[in-house]
Write a structure and sequence with these properties.
The structure is a single chain. 0% of the residues lie in helices and 40% in strands. It is globular, with a radius of gyration of 16 Å. A hairpin with a 5-residue loop joins strand 2 and strand 3. The chain has a single domain, classed as Galactose-binding domain-like (Jelly Rolls, Sandwich), CATH 2.60.120.260. The two termini are 29 Å apart. By secondary structure, it is an all-beta fold. It comes from Nymphaea colorata. This is Malectin-like domain-containing protein.
Length: 175
């Protein structure tokens, strides 16, 4: 699987859970990097981001994925007032050219969206698209996981599953 720390172009590290994080320099060739100003996220990978001030649509391209096999794609956004404007932007999120969701970010809360689908090509593209001239799209984290064939089994490889809500059933310390 692949865990990308957006905004850290060439860094690599392994977190406390053993997940290896890589920089985003090999997956995107536009945008600028920044560090967040509001530092209340627990996750190191959310301390940087990549923003796209001059492109209407900017994409990460992930090569070498198994065509026709289900993959989970998770995109995370932590504005953290990186631009000192205290004005979290809104923009569209797309995967493989398809509209995924309209993202409305928060000043100091990390937000993420997930999709599970089977790519038709041997790469996955995840794009942020500007919807208003004064709203600058950005991304903090991008994660790709190939799933075992029986996971999230559906009738057709064309099916797309979007995360609506996740609950920790049976956990005592989670709300």
């Amino acid at each position: 699987f692949l865990s990308i720390d957006c905004g850290d172009p060439w860094g690599t590290r392994t977190d406390d859970l053993g997940i290896q994080w890589v920089g985003d320099g090999g997956y995107v060739n536009t945008g600028k990097t920044a560090k967040v100003q509001v530092n209340n996220s627990y996750y190191d990978e959310e301390q940087t981001l990549r923003y796209f001030p001059s492109q209407k649509r900017s994409c990460y391209v992930i090569p070498g994925v198994a065509r026709g096999r289900k993959h989970m794609v998770r995109a995370t956004f932590f504005y953290g007032n990186y631009d000192n404007k205290s004005w979290p932007p809104s923009f569209d999120l797309q995967f493989d050219g398809n509209h995924w969701i309209s993202v409305t970010t928060s000043l100091d809360t990390s937000l993420y969206w997930e999709v599970i689908y089977a790519p038709k090509r041997d790469n996955i593209s995840v794009c942020v698209a500007q919807t208003s001239p004064d709203q600058i799209p950005f991304i903090s984290v991008l994660e790709i996981r190939e799933l075992a064939p029986a996971m999230y089994d559906t009738d057709d490889t064309e099916d797309v599953l979007l995360r609506w809500r996740r609950r920790a059933f049976g956990a005592k310390d989670f709300i």
